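Lab notebook page, bench 4
Experiment: in silico fold of construct C2
Operator: M.H.
Input chain length: 164 residues
Purpose: comparison with the prior construct
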Amino acid sequence: MTTESAGTETPASGGVDKAGIVIAALLAAVALVLVYDANQIVATTMYGMGPQVMPVVIAIGLGILALANLIDALRGNLPPRESSDPKAVLLILAGLALLIAIIGFGGGFILATTALFVTTSAAFGRRAFVTDLVIGAVLTTLIYLAFDRLLTLSLPAGPLERLL
């Protein structure tokens, strides 16, 4: 027995949700990749926490999400899914590609993350491009300054970061 929501079918309460199990497996796989990758980082500190700690913390969170998702999928408690919007997915993927390209070509954190912010807000249906561009630039500049000045952690530097 299935219920229909926006053109896709999901099991009724009590049935196993196969897509939910796949999502749980993907979350667990990402967590395992993060742990493996964290173990490949060479520790540069003789004491305290090194750079490998944060990926492990994120992996633990993903592992908890995977387990919770698996339990709900096996019980059939996941909410019905809506039909996918390929335009939204493509906008987010384009934003991620822009992020990688801008950082790869030396554009820096502020430009790259602003591009991701604008494409993600467009994917969620906002049509205020200029406003989102300004909000993204201000937020990412503040984030950059917090990491650079307060936490003394380096982020990818580009022309804007060199001006600060």
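Observations: The radius of gyration is 20 Å. Residues 1-10 have pLDDT under 50 and may be disordered.
Next step: discuss at group meeting.
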